[in-house]
Amino acid sequence: MNQNFKMTSLLTYTFKNLPSTSKWALRFCVRPLSSSSQLQAAAASQTKSKKTLAKPNIRNIVVVDGVRIPFLLSGTSYKDLMPHDLARAALLGLLHQTSVPKDVVDYIVFGTVIQEVKTSNVAREAALGAGFSDKTPAHTVTMACISSNQAMTTAVGLIASGQCDVVVAGGVELMSDVPIRHSRKMRKMMLDLNKAKTLAQRLSVISKFRLNFLSPELPAVSEFSTSETMGHSADRLAAAFAISREEQDEYALRSHSLAKRAQDEGLLSDIVPFKVPGRDTVTQDNGIRPSSLDQMAKLKPAFIKPYGTVTAANSSFLTDGASAVLIMAEEKALAMGYKPKAYLRDFMYVSQDPKDQLLLGPTYATPKVLEKAGLTMNDIDAFEFHEAFSGQILANLKAMDSDWFAQNYMGRKAKVGSPPLEKFNNWGGSLSLGHPFGATGCRLVMAAANRLRKEGGQYGLVAACAAGGQGHAMIVEAYPK
Amino acid sequence: MVASRAIGSLRRFTASRTLRCSGYICRSFTRSSVLLTRTHLNYGVKGDVAVIRINSPNSKVNTLSQELHSEFMEVMNEVWSSSQIRSAVLISTKPGCFIAGADLNMLNACTTSQEVTQISQEAQKTFEKLEKSTKPVVAAINGSCLGGGLELAISCQYRIATKDKKTVLGSPEVLLGILPGAGATQRLPKMVGIPAAFDIMLTGRGIRADRAKKMGLVDQLVEPLGPGVKPSEERTIEYLEEVAITFAKGLADKKITPKRDKGLVEKLTSYALSIPFVRQQIYKKVEEKVRKQTKGLYPAPLKIIDVVKTGIEQGSNAGYLSESQRFGELAMTKESKALMGLYRGQTQCKKNKFGAPQKEVKQLAVLGAGLMGAGIAQVSVDKGLQTILKDTTLPALGRGQQQVFKGLNDKVKKKTLTSFERDTMFSNLIGQLDYRGFEKADMVIEAVFEDLNLKHRVLKEVEAVIPDHCVFASNTSALPIGEIATVSKRPEKVIGMHYFSPVDKMQLLEIITTEKTSKDTTASAVDVGLRQGKVIIVVKDGPGFYTTRCLAPMMSEVIRILQEGVGPKKLDSLTTSFGFPVGAATLVDEVGVDVAKHVAENLSKDFGERFAGGSLEMLRQMISKGFLGRKSGKGFYIYQEGVKNKNLNSDMDSILASLKMPSQPDVSSDEDIQYRLVTRFVNEAVLCLQEGVLATPTEGDIGAVFGLGFPPCLGGPFHFVDLYGAQKIVDRLRKYEAAYGKQFTPCQLLVDHANNPNKKFYQ
Question: What region holds the Thiolase C-terminal domain (chain A) (predicted)?
Fold first, then answer.
């Protein structure tokens, strides 16, 4: 099968050089040919379905480089900071890493999920603090766990449409501190009190006070539409795909072990150190803790008690962190003398039932983005999937490998197939590195880009699920060395 | 990693192979034994756990029949005698149903109470054995677990239920006029406490899984799953089985105890209930409440209290004996036969005997945002039907939209809906003042004011904008559909859909077909009604159709009785003590005096002296004084916001005095007054069947009970004739005929039944 695909790509390449042939026509004539066995011998080289994903008349968009501050467990070194502090640190790290002149940046976009009300446009506050020109506009986007993916694709849109040449995209999340509000009743009373002019009016407002007004309102941890927490949904998802506790623990252990190895071997080169005021300089992620299966087996289920399978050890943990990438039009980057790391190619957003398929975004997005790019699973050298829960990853792998699911839920003729694990999240994932909601997308893209450079290979596939039953996938193409 | 995954999958594979093998061994083993096949049950062994799967053939539900019962005993005996098996799981593989209850046909086939008692005792014995099983049995419940199903489940050592909307536990026996006859009266009080047990058995209401968990009725919940590599339902049952097996093993290994931690309140209550005096007080309280609510017309609830009491005070042997005996007695009562008949009728009226319509209604439009229109819209949007609600003025439309919102929001307050679900449902409603979008409507239901000219105008307006296939339904309580359809270009698409107020509470929908109405139009109307959750009767067009026509002569008699000097309060108490849920005078107030007059005038034109009796002058005078009933704040009673006890409207005295008529003592006893009302109702109902307005007696009973509040304990007019005796009714009618005249003349069909005692409406 592999041979066939390779040959297909060889042929595609040949056909591509023929003038005036439409892309569709190409695909159609390639397929029947590729199955003829006599040509098989010719397909020996390592070529892909497509040599590059460049499209005529569309600007090539590149990631010059990207950084992140170390991702830390919530409540550790970053706990006294505010989100824009982390975002600023990521921006400063990016400036340092790329030496990009601040005034070249046309626009800044950041993703975040839990908004600090004081800095609701955290992108702008961080940019000003980092010393970017006050003439550089900035906005903040939110799309749950794919917020920084959205920031990056916003940048892609701005550049592709010719509005900008240089955009900084990033993401930030600080779970050590979240906005806890007064109750609605209390807020109403306080606002009424503000409006009350006379003492009598004030007293009459105050007289309405009841003790239960003081009970605080926490930011929602559950899905608004279904009132179900994500962990609960993940546990049901794992059960729906018959994924055992052992499998989940094994996968989590794999993530931690691979992350540990990557950390030890210095592969996590996107990390920039962060001198936290009043504390030591943070240089590495602190959530990577390879344990043993026995240790993990001792944990009690965290959501569906007492018999569920999702535990603290096989879920991603609450994380503080920020990331940023420098995205440019290729010609601009080259003109400035940069050697970019990767192209950002086709991307796809999907959404589905937020109740029973909350975390299946990657399953839906993967075949679509591959189709759009004209690639197959075999063309991908580096998979970087967001790991919300072990159970979620394993469920997605099973779903992608199921013809029944593809036919009954995705309206496809056949499954796309499950990514080979040897190419999958080889440097750890959100389970071990951590998952600052708004910042994970940029980490995924940089991991894919860096892995392609390090391990060799041309195409990376980034995919993630998000609250609300949404999902995202993007093809990252290595920049030729 | 890859290797470990592969091992994992290999292990699963082997596991499932052994399972299948052991299942196979078991089955072949049973085949070789005396009984060749089991039709309702099969079982396999997983490790040391026997998994008993229930699935009755050729039926949507599992019922506790004698066959299932004996097969279950066989299997359990094998489980108990096998040394390999240490525990068992009992599960149904039928989607949405564990066991829906005992087989009613089995009870109906019994002719004496002894036979029924014997059935009860056999079940009691089985369940007692199950309860005392040394090998723990886990009931894994997905879907309805009612009546005998619940009794089986609570005899097991442990219960796990899916937290699905379809999973409902309950003891609905009381609604059929019987009691739980397989031990529930003895086990439930011990399991959930006396007050909760009474609540379950006396109301018969269904309890959702999460509530059941809180009460201690089930021990664990399992969340329903979404799709995986197979359909949700299938995988959910599998998952339930897997979870149940781990608990069965845990119980056998004594790692889990079936005992449950009780909260402080529960501990206090159970302490209080250990004091005999407190218990006596509870029995007394409950009995008082039951007597007040049932007016002594329903024997079952009192017997339930009695049986529970016997069990607690005199020990379970006495309790079981009492349960089986009372069960036998109750099953032979008229009330039980009537209620079971109604239950069967209700099931029949929840089917579409006209088949699936050619085009399913996806876009509905309702004209008129009044009480009825908005009610119809509400029961449509909450089932996901796109609905346009149209009125002519913004305030009227706004009132209707608010009514729909309030109806949905009340469910949020009761926690049967989430606010998010409410909002999505409310988004199905489009309020507007014009006919935009009607070109896409599949059905239009008009609920404008009851005026023929207005209805004609509306019909013409609507027909100008709707597509050809669109059905035009008229919601009217008395205007003949044929007359409305005279102005239609396509009378085959015109039909009547008579809803009852309040639409979201009243179950009945009366569908009226004219000679010209096509079969597909009827099928479509029934389909929409069923989707709205209604119980449906389909009747022929005619003045007053069926329901209004039956009510009218009774109402005429109500006025006559009032004229004869019986006060509204006395009349109300006479009717409610006969079993009507609402008193006759109150009913007039609720319906609206103007509406009652309008209907009465129209119908008396058509039916003449058969609808004679009271003087319509009373209604006319009430209207002229503004006493329109509840909606105007005054009728026979005075209605005030927030005041629960209603007082008589003293201004009515002069009207009543001015229209006073002498009463005839020999037909004016309390009982005579009751029978004057009921026999007129029944006579008219039977006439409707005789004339072909009604297609079946079942529909007549369902319509009377669910639409008009005919006493459910009598089972509807036709059950009443069968059970009470046609001859007795004819005798009464003749007596009243002699005193009052032709309005009491019994109809031919009723006379035929009286002349031939073998003739029954229900064979």
Answer: 338-477
